[in-house]
């Protein structure tokens, strides 16, 4: 245990309360590498120097020497006995002590400022340890628990097999592990052996201190998850003490893609800062077919092979037909009509496809022309409707918001509550009678940080229009219903559908 540093809030060797620790997390509903530790505290809580040194910077973003940090902050330059020059960053400060100015000598335990929420969503202190340079973009951030005193325990669970996708010709795996206490977030390194029988074909590594194995450049993006065909996800957000959703523990996923055809077994190992290691049992790699179902409606059959027809079970006025008038390309498309306005229950008029279980990613898309939309305020129609049994899981929708028809997403959280969001009026406004391509991309399925991303066609290109995060561990997708997946009682709709696809791997 290090004794060269003290914690910045307790000003002692007693650990401060922690939210998300160093490493992967979900931020703005995207993958993010968190370069430090978040310490929640009320605004005005005193912040102390973790070690004596020289003030490298103290001030606001935009001040000379501020670098890329976007909040009021202080950076101390200290001499570490093992790692040389270290730069300790204190972010989101409410105030900076008057004696803390560039070039000033600071002693350990000296007050340097107070906790704030400047450029943050809640009051907390974010701390970082940068080795050798104060440049936040240099990817030299180090785990603060390598330096701060804490009680190290072998606290991580052994990785377990979770889900597998076939991304085109190659298999991909997701393995899960975690820690029961969020204050024990000292994860540092993950190794995965790819085996054929007992022989190791290759070993893939993610090391949080090695930028060649993980994308640590600032900026949240799901495109940054993988490096060398392996990535680690953290299934928590910064504010783990959020009163609406408190997280007491830590969840992680190991993603390994492009497994060689001869790979039939995985073994994963997890290491913490103190060197403790836990290993998985051998994990068999299944040989499963990829789902990549495209329906163009050209054969005239309704429903298409492998799909089921669904219309409302009560009343009349809901029909689904293969029709030449519904073609976007080719000669035929799917014509979905809900012409019933006297019903007291929701209606449906579309087709369904049963999803094979155990996937961690799905993409549903198609060309849609909502030719008729008669929706009262706050009413919606679901075009790409994914269900868990008879319950909503997640859907791409059109909703009447204050007289504007807007594209958006709605999902059912693990507690049964609905979470919804809409595109902006500018980008997501829906005009009846016009074709647009819709794509709903589901990431991190079966975790408490599942994400749905809605893309819409704009000038011939798919562009992201909405993004929603929710917990899908209770109501994960089992069935895709497309067309009029659901329309609300009293509403009327006619929707034309063509080039419908459901796939478990990214579509160009």
SSE layout:
Blueprint: E1 23-27, E2 30-34, E3 36-40, E4 46-48, E5 53-59, E6 73-80, E7 84-91, E8 93-96, E9 105-106, E10 111-115, E11 124-131, E12 141-142, E13 160-167, E14 170-179, E15 187-196, E16 199-207, E17 230-234, E18 250-259, E19 265-272, E20 277-279, E21 283-284, E22 292-295, E23 308-311, E24 318-323, E25 333-338, E26 347-354, E27 361-374, E28 380-388, E29 391-401, E30 404-412, E31 418-422, H1 425-428, E32 436-443, E33 450-458, E34 461-470, E35 479-487, E36 492-503
Antiparallel strand pairs: 1-2, 3-11, 4-10, 5-6, 5-9, 6-7, 7-11, 8-10, 11-12, 13-14, 14-18, 15-16, 15-19, 17-18, 19-20, 19-21, 22-36, 23-26, 24-25, 25-36, 26-35, 27-32, 27-36, 28-29, 28-35, 29-30, 30-31, 32-33, 33-34
Description:
- The strands form seven sheets. Strands 22, 24, 25, 27, 32, 33, 34 and 36 form an eight-stranded antiparallel beta sheet that branches. Strands 3, 5, 6, 7, 9, 11 and 12 form a seven-stranded antiparallel beta sheet that branches. A seven-stranded antiparallel beta sheet has the order 23-26-35-28-29-30-31, with no helix packed on it.
- 46% of the residues are buried.
- Strand 33 and strand 34 (461-470) form a beta hairpin.
- The chain has three domains: 23-146, Glucose Permease (Domain IIA); 160-284, Immunoglobulin-like; 292-503, Jelly Rolls, CATH 2.60.120.
- It starts with 22 loop residues before the first strand and ends in a 5-residue tail after the last strand.
- It is 1% helix and 49% strand.
- It has one helix and 36 strands.
